[in-house]
Structure prediction request, 155 residues.
Amino acid sequence: NFGGLSMSSRWSIYYILFYELVGDPEMLTLAKQNLDFQLGANPLSTTYITGIGEKPPKHPHVQITEYHGIDEVIPGFSVSGTAHSLPLKEYYEDIMMNAYPAYQGTDPACQYYPTARKFADAFEPVKMGEFVIDNMARTAMSFGYFSDPDASYQP
Prediction:
């Protein structure tokens, strides 16, 4: 689904809000676990936030950097991440099959390939590399909540 990975920040916010309402520390554990996938705890060991970790996205769908020839990716963008299927498969086929690991999504025989491994770090697949302001806001809020090491809410 479009932007599915960015939903981990949304679910984290729900868990944080629930914690603030009822004080159940398990909610903070669940909030952090939802963010772990974006930080590289996934089958590809890839972070899905530019500029963070050992394998961050280097070619997100950011038109400013792509069309103006800027080599450095702007840090802090939360990209959409993995996608089970792509519209206009013919357009993406060369890009996706030359990705490593190969996308494994354009052939109907590969429909059972795990969605968590269906990602290509390329500008063209908007469904994987696009970022939107509401995703960035949710990501900033979720990580900002846990950024104070002296806070009493740290389980």
